[in-house]
Amino acid sequence: MSLNIQNYPNLALVNYPEDLRQLSLSRLPELCSELRDYLLTTVSQSSGHLASGLGVVELTVALHYVYQTPFDQLIWDVGHQAYPHKILTGRREQMATIRKKGGLHPFPWREESEYDTLSVGHSSTSIGAALGMAVAANREKQGRKVVAVIGDGAMTAGMAFEALNHAGSTRDDLLVVLNDNEMSISENVGALNNSLARIMSGSVYSTLREGSKKLLKGLPPIKELAKRTEEHIKGMVAPGTLFEEFGFNYIGPMDGHDVKGLVQILKNMRDLKGPQLLHIITKKGKGYLPAERDPISYHAVSPFDPQSTQLPKKTSTTTFSGVFGNWICDMAEQDPKLMGITPAMREGSGMVEFSKRFPKQYFDVAIAEQHALTFAAGLAIGGQHPVVAIYSTFLQRAYDQLIHDIAIQNLSVLLAIDRAGIVGADGPTHQGAFDLSFLRCVPNLVIMTPSDENECRQMLYTGYIHQGPAAVRYPRGGAINAPIEQPMRALALGKGKIRRHGQKIAILCFGPLLHEALEAAKTLNVTVVDMRFVKPLDGSCIDQLVTEHEQLVTLEDNAIMGGAGSAVAEYLQSAGHHIPLLQIGLPDRFISQGSQTEVYAELGLDSQGIIRKLQPLLTD
Fold it and tell me: Fewest CB atoms less than 10 Å from the CB: which of 195, 384, 397, 480?
């Protein structure tokens, strides 16, 4: 794909932010229009995150116009909204490669550009990192400015508030831009509020504000009265009292699509001292009506026709997330005590139907993974039956809560861990490479690895009725189309299943790579076992395999270090078995983006890779 940049006369002049800063202020609205169209066209042809980027075009232009990036440091929270930033920072011609193997990273990435000051992918890290950079900038005393851009969704996480609380106490110069695209407060946008923001960010107001503090410093009662009077006046017209309590000077809300107004306010704010918060109102999907109407569907898209009013219909293939969604609805019909919990991943985790049919049993706790698990613990203590649907990499953020609040107390909480193993295009921040390693060492926890959708359904039921914590981890995307057994049945804890008998080598499979192993076994004539459980491990099955084979091989879509293969190695040693063991899984590095098929092939986890690894063992 190649776009004719000459069709974008203003954008063609901007290869880097220093070029942008050469344009007159009057040309910025036209540039924003071209940037928005370029973003829409490139993403529609190549796929990627769309709606978030469309909503921050003006903000991106204004920030790079006012701040001397990359000397001044700009941090984008999560990074879904950073596509316009990438276009303006030397990567315009590479946008067709984004999220593809060997192409641009899907999020800001330090190794990719000096303009990406923080590698991101998970929510709510921007303010904490920006504060660290601001403290460092204050110590180096070169006049460097630091800006963090965070969305209203990301502001729901406790980590964001921890950082706000700390920033208010350090008093270092820092600007936090709260990008608010929640429609319920859109009525706050208008001439009055924009005028207020300009006044509050201006030098006269700032001078009076700081001067009055010094003047009243020796008069505590009057100072306190003046402070509260100021807060109450501002609170009548702007929802900023909360941020003021954190120690921030709150300015806004203002129209986030008024690029000239943004430039003026950012210029005013650039030299203000201490922590500042600018509250802007934007429209997610701005400028493209279908995305404005349905920003969730247009959050991340496959190639589509931007002239059409609808996205292409997805092929109706079974997914593991869909299997979970069907199971939780079926289970909720049987058990009114089932409580489904998600940390802001209703669509991705397959809980849309459940949320509609069982609204009183459904809880979206926002981007608060730690709270999700402790909330589940409380429900379990109260006699309810909580199920937490959570992505593998997001569970990393709630590790202490899993150990301290659930496992130590041996509470009956089921973790439905989605996006385990190789996720694909979202790259290192989203690959579910570590969950078996960090879960396996937690006492009281049962860990299951389904190889197909039927096993996933039966394991979810098994974990649900188990007395104690249990985890079922399954990959992103399509399942194997195995027939679903009815009714649901509980599996025997810690029991594997030999799927194929062969010679010399036994492959012990944990999870969906079983089917690659079965395909490879047709050539190799080796034994293949669906181990099913990582914990408890099927020791009796391993004992049998040791007596019948010359070599054992473990296969998993998790890091080799500390994973299921390590569990087998530990068992062999404890049982006094002396047999060669080859562990196949994810190597000791972060896995870059690429389709699941591409990554499996690269790492030798597909059938051909397994054959290449095992054939030399059979010929020795």
Answer: 195
